[in-house]
Amino acid sequence: MRKLTVPISEVTIRELTVGEPVILSGVISTGRDAAHKYIIDNFVKTGGNPPEAERELYAKLQDILTEGVIYHCGPVVQQQNGTYSFVAAGPTTSIREEPYQADVIEHFTLRAVIGKGGMGTNTLQACQKVGAVYLHAIGGAASLIAQSVKEVLTVYKKDEFGVPEAFWVIRVEDFPAVVTMDSHGNSLHDKIKSQSNAKLAELIGS
Amino acid sequence: MQDLTENFVELIRRAATDLPADMQQALEKAKAQEESGSAAEGALDTILRNVEMARANATPICQDTGTPIFEIHYPLGVSPRQVTEQIRKACAVATERAYLRPNAVDSLSGKNSGDNTGIDYPTIHFHEWDEDAIQVDLLLKGGGCENVSTQYKLPDSGLGAGRDLDGVRKVVLDAVNKAQGLGCAPGVLGVAIGGDRGSSYVKSKQQLLRPLDDANPEPELADLEERLLEEGNQLGIGPMGFGGKTTLLGVKAGALHRLPASFFVSVAYMCWANRRAQMRVVGEEVTYA
């Protein structure tokens, strides 16, 4: 199985094709609805010139996300002696970020987005243009994925966005996923759907 | 009647942190059938390792611990009101112990109650019976698969589905195709034929409590279940929608009387994390299965 280590080079990403299982290691950030909207409003719409109060976080996120990975996940987090750990951390449905994802990929030169259920045409085009992939994690595998989160390095916007929506910066080891949208314009979701549509028509005789 | 609150907490713990043996076996069998090295096989392997870990650590199998649905059979003399109070208390305790994620949101204010109780939450259905025992079946129904559950009205001209069992077959296959991997396939289907819209949905969910290997006493429905399982898998959607041989692990169907004017077919899609557990109370003795 192919191992990916963050930061990931464009060359590596271009080698990946849909259907390929991978395991990912390195420092990534979670981010879902609130995080994506925040990135668009503060970084993308301002052309990389965020308001004063957000500049520090912008620099930090640039460090993590440039050639990096964002994970659509609202974790269950435990805090003991001032240290956070992930208890359950399965993927959430990605399509909700479709209005934002392409801009976020382009803005940071993201190399991968992890989630579940796949994404739409805009994201697929951004993957092709920038050199990025969509990685599908296993829905419901919350305990196992939490085990691959070795360390919670820090968290941003926890009080403002709440625990599930914050940017959790985590170090993962051997995080299992499957490439379902590659950087060559292929989506496994589209392919499976068109095959099953054809089979359905045959089975119901329409 | 004795206070069963702690027993209900234990029932919830068992449902949230472990899979029934028949589901585990079905997932293992599915993994063996998928092509070696395929994404489908990998997904099933991850699922099985996740179940093992959840069981060992008594942590939830999935972070979405779902809507708790209780189906209760009880003898004359047991008070449904008392049982309801104990179950609601047990849901709050189970949330405190992190067996359940706080999942009950006020639909008007958007506020999470924080303890898995609310208006008609959890769902509890009571059925009086002749046996001198209380039997409690619990299903934890996740949100992702609930969102792809659906209801059809026959005839459906778009699908060429008439008001007969072949029409039922066509709309159920359409539901599986529409769901793709979004219900966290491979799933189990509960199908209800007939009823009104409400009773039909309830019946479809009750089907999910049946063991995968039970035989439907109604031969026509037994045939339909078998055919739907086989044809659903021919769609090739596969685990998580990655493509593969296993799209469904089981299909369970039941029928209700209906109005002459209405012919509903309800499809309850259950994710691979088909978390059900049973508790029986006979006298003072409480057993779990």
Please provide a written account of the structure.
The complex is a heterodimer of chains A (206) and B (289). In chain A, 38% of the residues lie in helices and 29% in strands. By secondary structure, chain A is α/β, with parallel strands linked by helices. Chain A has a single domain (2-204), classed as Alpha-Beta Barrel (fumarase). A five-stranded mixed beta barrel of chain A has the order 2-3-6-7-9. The model of chain A has no long low-confidence stretch (mean pLDDT 95). With 289 residues, chain B is of the alpha+beta class. Chain B has two domains: 5-15 and 61-142 and 275-288, 2-Layer Sandwich (Dihydrodipicolinate Reductase, domain 2); 144-270, no CATH class. Chain B has helices at 5-17, 21-33, 39-57, 80-96, 143-146, 165-179, 197-207, 219-234; strands at residues 67-74, 123-128, 134-141, 150-153, 187-193, 248-255, 264-270, 275-282, 285-288. The chains are: A alpha/beta (206), B alpha+beta (289). Chains A and B meet through helix 6, strand 9 and helix 8 of A and helix 3 and helix 6 of B.
